[in-house]
Amino acid sequence: MRLGxxxxxxxxxxxxxxxxxxxxxxxxxxxxxxxxxxxxxxxxASRFIAVGAQALHVVDQGPRRADVPVVMLVHxxxxxxxxxxxxxxxxxxxxxxxxxxxxxxxxxxxxxxxxYDGDAEAALIGALARQMNLPPFVLVGTSSAGEGVAHYAxxxxxxxxxxxxxxxxxxxxxxAPHFTPWFKAVxxxxxxxxxxxxxxxxxGILRMNYADPTRVSPELVLEWTQLNxxxxxxxxxxxxxxxxxxxxxxxxxxxxxxxxxxxxxxxxVPLAKDGRxxxxxxxxxxxxxxxxxxxxHMMPLECSQASLVPMQAFLSRISR
Length: 320
Prior knowledge:
The protein is α/β, with parallel strands linked by helices and about 325 residues long. It is about 40% helix and about 15% strand. The protein has twelve helices and eight strands. Strands 1-2-4-3-5-6-7-8 form an eight-stranded mixed beta sheet, with helices on both faces. The longest helix is centred in the N-terminal third of the chain and has 25 residues, at about 1-25.
């Protein structure tokens, strides 16, 4: 009888605890403290600037001489400029490396109009380049950043010295993920939280996009959870057309020397489809495809050193 009462009391306490957690999440009480986030995730080279009305976290490293090529790195969805830590470490001795947290991600602020599409991101790249008074530079975009990066490259060939497109969609993107029953349960619970997200959700997303899920560290899951929970309650509006709808036309209009960099085990935008189509649709005369083996969709995170090798070769060639 005592055991039964204890079990019943424990069940009631658990239900109350879950209910309190859900209530606190939906009320926004679990949103991370901004000062703590900057203390954790800003870098010595971090700058917090305004580009028009956009609050932007920017990291600018490497030599500033006029003869040093400039490389701008644009990360994928729900990530941050830390996605490029490995690449930046390998490039900053020879190149000026600029990266930023995309609007609504990392330590940047929300997009002022709440618009998150390729047009808005291409406009931001242009505004940042003008504000920093950049000479023709090398622009790199991975995953969802490829939409805005390709759009900018199509519109502003004179502003670019080179282009790298890594694991982007070659055309309209309609993801059809295959979730396990466990992850469906995680998503169902996560959906009760009013925009707050639990570590299990981000851990599942990361592991699904890695070729080797064991490479996903607890520290990376915590980083993604905390940084993305900053955006709880921020407005997000997307265009009516599916993402990357305009990318085929943009690719055809690109004339800048371009490296197409792809993972051989990307489940989101497979090499056999999107990688080959990206190369074929490019209008550039100088274009090439390099494949990174045993790597998933989040190439700069999972395979930073292996993917950096063809990047460095491309930069050396176009910099001569």
